[in-house]
From TrEMBL:
InterPro entries (alphabetical): Dimeric_a/b-barrel (IPR011008), YCII (IPR005545)
Domain YCII-related: residue ranges: 2-98
Pfam family, one: YCII
Family the entry assigns: Belongs to the YciI family.
Annotated protein name in UniProt: YCII-related domain-containing protein
């Protein structure tokens, strides 16, 4: 997963320019043409969201906006590639127009069933597969 970190502009709700939208569209098209794009979306500013923190098992809702911009996410792209190195190469091709050339991206692996070891029993695997099939419908 490529995580696009938030900045002052994304948190202020500044929408991307037509030029940036075109550049991101071209980047996403490249990912799709290569067969590696799985999902990708921009996120609304934290002012339009909430955090839910649990304490003692009980939820506590905190409405946005949130002050720590550097810890927030402005969007994400999910790619499926053969290696970490290949993923890094795609991240390096991110449109330089984004964030006026001052954007921070984070690359993270998504857990796969085999990552959980024996604790992910055959029954849990079947349940996960049924859920994925249901989502695909």
């Amino acid at each position: 997963m490529i995580i696009r970190k938030a900045d002052e502009e994304t948190e202020a709700g500044v929408l991307p320019s037509q030029e940036l939208l075109e550049a991101m569209g071209a980047y996403n098209a490249e990912l799709a043409e290569a067969g590696v794009l799985r999902a990708g979306e921009g996120l609304q500013p934290s002012a339009k969201g909430a955090k839910v923190k649990f304490s003692g098992g009980k939820p506590h809702v905190v409405d946005g906006p949130f002050t720590e911009t550097k810890e927030l996410i402005a969007g994400f792209t999910i790619i499926e590639v053969e290696s970490y190195e290949e993923a890094l190469e795609w991240v390096k091709r991110w449109p330089s127009l984004d964030g006026n050339g001052e954007v921070e991206l984070e690359l993270r692996r998504i857990f796969e069933a085999d990552d959980f070891g024996e604790e992910f029993t055959p029954e849990l695997r079947e349940q996960e597969e049924r859920l994925r099939e249901q989502i695909a419908e």
